[in-house]
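[READ THE FOLD]
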Amino acid sequence: MQHDDFIGQVQNRARLPSRGDAERACRATLETLGERIPEGLADNLAAQLPVEIGEHLRRTEIYGGRGSGERFDRHDFIERVSSRSGADEPKAAFLARAVLEVTDEATEGGIMDKIYSSLSPDIRQLVAAGSTD
């Protein structure tokens, strides 16, 4: 999937008025995801996404072999997306679901299954809810 297609799908699915809003939602969600999942997994996911989008995952990596994979729950995940996107928490949860759905559709080889497996059940529930709920 190309960058413009990815952003357009996020904009449409999240019902955002502008591409800039969709870019902001992608950055907020993927930077937060990058903090939550192990660094190697973030790299693998980033490699399957358009370069500009994948960089959001890499921005939160911790170099020197320590890795990332910070432990936080659904509330913290949504709070971080909210803070980064400028959206209130219910809207941030909706944006995160939309971005992660498009990310899932843009990847192959079961990478998103590995991502979901690395998340706590409450964050997986957020992702499984879907943006159409």
Remarks:
- DSSP finds eight helices and no strands in the chain.
- The radius of gyration is 13 Å.
